[in-house]
Amino acid sequence: MTTITADEFSVLSKYIYSICGVALDSTKTYLVETRLKSMMQKYGCASYLDLHAKAKADRSGNMEKEIVNAITTNETLFFRDASPFEVFKHKILPDLIDARSKSVSGRNIPLRIWSAACSTGQEVYSIAIALREALGNLNNFQISILGTDISDEAVTKASYGKYNKFEIERGLPLQTLNKYFTLQGDGWKIRDEIRAMAVFKKFNLMKPFAGLGKFDIVFCRNVAIYFTPADKKMVFEKIASVLEPDGSLIIGSTESLTGVTGMFEAKRYMRSIFYQPVPGSSPQTPTGFTYAQTPVPALAGTAASVVRPPLPAPRPVPVAAPRPTPRAVPAPVGASGASPAPQPVPVAPAPMERPVAPAPAAAVAQQAPPSEEAPRPVAPRPTPVRSQPAQVYRAGDKSELKRLLMQKKQKGQS
Ligand SMILES: C[S@@+](CC[C@H](N)C(=O)[O-])C[C@H]1O[C@@H](n2cnc3c(N)ncnc32)[C@H](O)[C@@H]1O
């Protein structure tokens, strides 16, 4: 096998940075060598410099895409880290719906969510399933989940929504699998009603965010760990600019925004941290709720983008639309409400459509957060209090909502 020289690594790592923002230092020399090996063979390259020259000269852009697909680490799993989905269901969503239900008077409540580096889609479908579990039927909501990634291979797979045994066994409780997936040949496919909640699109976080519209919640997890400190700051500040003032950002559980940008403040809920824009910190942050002016934008079709099937027709909603059902105890990890831990899945041992081998050691090492990450600016995590309010809104439960709103009002007056 042709080995990569230090000079070749220097040229290629600069090229890789220029096309996807992934910053590779010399400790990643072996990773670049192994991940580009098959391209070397495919394009008959005599050296890594030759590969670089051919990629730069390739006007179709295909070689560039292949390099991005090869270099990016698409490691992901369903309900990754569990607690972000708990804070999503039990804190961020109820607060948001509470605020939105006051502004939309009679219309469906819009919720725009962005998974900003969605890889092969597990994060997007975890969000969609968590929404279904938390909100019950979604008739009173206008939900839009955007999944984007720079890797078109990853986006295509995400859009198809079919997973093999290995992928299914990572993070999906059996009950959730049975409820939201159907066995199809050698894998499991996400059910149409969940698939219909999402749109996927190829998108490079290094590019301007113009045209994306506004979001209520952004998941940007385990991607900024590959960026330089300056790019990290730039990406999170662009996210601040597309987040509603009362929106929320969820980042990876090994990541922190301390020392990265002052545009977000950390909020704690039980075991989790999420971030909200510091009021007035972003010059582009609008002053108020913008849905009346900014409808969910139609996404421009690209080769890799897939337009979702239409959602059910909006239904008129009473003024005090959704209804919080207080829950004393958050649902167990995995959103199904009954399974505390991932369980083995009864998938017949069949050849996989797209076998995904466990990440090689080098790739796994790449997942580690940079050591310079500062600790989170919060007190030690309290043990979750079982009786803490963990409200989940269920459309249709009007009397309970009224009671809660009254309670809130009374609290506000006292
Ligand atoms: C480790 S995965 C994280 C997936 C998911 N967010 C999670 O936490 O499980 C990182 C993803 O970031 C994507 N990525 C890397 N650079 C990117 C960029 N500049 N713009 C958009 N996505 C990028 C990769 O293709 C990869 O799918």
Description:
The chain is built from 14 helices and twelve strands. It is globular and about 65 Å long. The chain is α/β, with parallel strands linked by helices. The protein has two domains: 6-71, Chemotaxis Receptor Methyltransferase Cher, domain 1; 83-325, 3-Layer(aba) Sandwich (Rossmann fold), CATH 3.40.50.150. Helix 6 (83-103) crosses helix 7. Strands 6-2-1-7-8 form a five-stranded parallel β-sheet. A three-stranded antiparallel β-sheet has the order 3-5-4. A two-stranded antiparallel ribbon has the order 9-10. The chain has helices at residues 6-20, 29-35, 37-42, 48-57, 62-71, 83-103, 122-135, 152-160, 165-168, 174-180, 192-195, 229-242, 361-367, 398-413; strands spanning 109-115, 141-149, 162-163, 181-184, 187-190, 198-202, 215-220, 243-251, 264-269, 272-277, 324-325, 392-393. The structure holds S-adenosylmethionine. S-adenosylmethionine binds at residues 20-22, 72-76, 80, 117, 119, 123, 149-151, 154, 204-206, 221-223, 226, 252.
Question: What brief labels describe this structure?
Answer:
single chain, 414 residues, alpha/beta, Chemotaxis Receptor Methyltransferase Cher, domain 1, Rossmann fold, 2 domains, five-stranded parallel sheet, three-stranded antiparallel sheet, 12 strands, 15% strand, globular, binds S-adenosylmethionine
